[in-house]
Amino acid sequence: QVQLVESGGAWVQPGESLKLSCAASGRNVMRAAMRWFRQVPGKQREEISCLDDHDGTSVYGDSLKGRFTASRDRAGKTTYLQMTSLEPDDTAMYFCATDLNILCSETFDYGVGYWGEGTLVIVSG
After folding, report:
1. 83: nearest Cα among 5, 14, 3
2. Residue 107 DSSP label
């Protein structure tokens, strides 16, 4: 069984930085591609980043590239989302997820995906 626990969400001012963490446990999780999603109330959950051991980190969305990056610790059990130059539009609940595929190039399987409970990021002056 896979468990994912996000942390690090906070209320920050525009322009500040924040680093989220996703602690993973369970079988095969260390080699799995890890994804970050975010969701604003009333809107669909959107995938913002994926990290795997083959291609590294991919960040999706022109507004996020250059500001967001993902990384993973050497043990492969904690994934991070570093966010810089935060904007009010970045306000959302942030989730990490995996379907245990090892490549980000594989389409995420929502049917078997494991999710954390999320961590809330509020960007407001």
Report:
1. 14
2. P
Q: Are the C-beta atoms of residues 11 and 125 closer than 8 Å to each other?
A: no
> What pLDDT sits at residue 58?
87
Residues 6+ apart with CB under 8 A from 49: 35, 36, 57, 58, 59, 60, 64, 68, 69, 70, 81
CA triple 43-49-54, angle to 5 deg: 150
**Predicted confidence (pLDDT) per residue in 56-94, tens digit:** 888 898 889 999 999 999 888 999 999 999 999 999 999
Six token digits for residue 87: 């904007």
Where b means 16+ CB within 10 Å and e means fewer, 52-80 reads beeeebbbeeeebeebbbbebeeeeebbb
* Share in percent of the chain as helix, strand, coil (round to 5): 5, 45, 50
Count of positions (residues) in the chain: 125
Q: Are 2 and 113 in contact (CB under 8 A)?
A: no
* Single-letter amino acid code for the residue at 54: H
